[in-house]
Amino acid sequence: MTINERRSLPLWKKLIAILISIIAFGFQTLLAILFIVFLISFEGELYKTITGIVYLVAKFIGVLYVFYILRKPISLNYKLTWTFLILIAPIPFCIIYTMNSNSKKFSRKKQRMFNEAFKEVNIEYNEFVPDNYDLMPIINSLRYNGNKVFSNTKYTFFNDIVDKNNDMINEIKKAKKYILLEYFIIAEGKLMDSLFEALNERANAGVKIYFLYDDVGSKGILVRKLIKKLTKIKNIQISNYQPLGINLKLMFNYRDHRKMCVIDGIISYCGGDNIADEYVHLKERFGYWRDNCGKYEGDASMAFTYLFSQMWYLSTKKVIFDELKPLEVDIKNQEGYFMVFGDGPSTLKNPAYDSFMSMIINAKKYLYISTPYLLTDEAMLQAIEMKAKCGVDVRILMPGIPDKKPVYYMGRSSYSRLLNAGVKIYEAKDCFNHAKNIIVDDRYAFEGTINLDYRSLFLHYECGVIIMDNPEIFKMKDDYLAFIDKSKEVIRDEWERRPLIQKIIAFILNIIAPFF
Fold this sequence. Notes:
By secondary structure, the protein is an alpha/beta fold. The protein has 19 helices and 19 strands.
């Protein structure tokens, strides 16, 4: 059994960690308070002189920070937001930026350690690149980031997580060597009970189990009793990604937002669902919960094994990829091509953003997007608008019931410009649409964990698959259109007549949208 070291700290060390967190947060605000007190504590000519000097120094420091931020390889929206805040109040926001930087980047030391750990790790696979000009822009956008094209893979689309979990648990019960589970959220409930029973049965048969969850995603949901219950399973190793304890930073960046299950290196599942009862309609949160998932049998599962081993290393400092050899299976002559990719600070690039932009730019007939959040940068919004202006059928499916109201209102602030460009926007009735899909021209589609928001595209660890020339794309499209028929279309004229207070709130929140 492996438990992250921070989880097993003695009480006195936990108290020290809490104290350090409080001091770190206090330091961020103390200097700003002292600066304000300093300005109001002087009178007369001396006051004016000192105030002027401090003001000029503060502005000079702010300008230096702005130049530094503008040259960083981050989204333009991040740059504009930080520039705006720093120029308004240089001292506090320079401090906050320094301690809560949004740059998607490892430290040099951490990147060097990560590269060293995986320099000898390779997926042994003879890549087959299809000779198809229409697919090459999509393929090249990911191959540039080091991803491979997989064939010899059977793909199944699940439009309901109930069916997916029934199938996954049945496959787990047939596992022979190992089971890998990585989820952003795990919670007690009937779904966890069913999973526990299947895992316990296979562990008793000698199957190794590796279980990884995100500490922030499960905080407030995950209870100590559940962890104790899971650790009783024989042959299980459990780790939580970057436990925070009490952390008082303003932003929780770089979380493990991936969701996957890999069985014997030959079967894998990846979608928007976590291990919690609301995903299988056993618990109601925000109305009906819409989500979907994909099953991959064959060569593409090797890529998920590799992605899991990376996150396991980041959580435990142990490289386990060589221990996870796949079973030998003969899955040949399957239709389609698959590009599995992971994104996050360890990639140095933005494969998720690059592949999404490539899919959008290369759409010729239709572009269907399903996302719970719509908080992307200016370049992507302009690309979507341009496709609609060129006559492409562009549709976006959003939730009708939000789980995070501020983020929901921020996303809706883009509706007017999109509607004016000819984009059709739908909000699911009495439903939280959590499915993350992009479907284009019956030729290619995305399925995975990535939302159209800043955190997914620029900060978190994510994963997904670009599916090309596979008949299941038609099932995904049919499911999307069927749900569109049950959703409410946002009409431009009606939208422009929404209450003024909603427009003001959206405008104000949109200034700090990159922080969400």
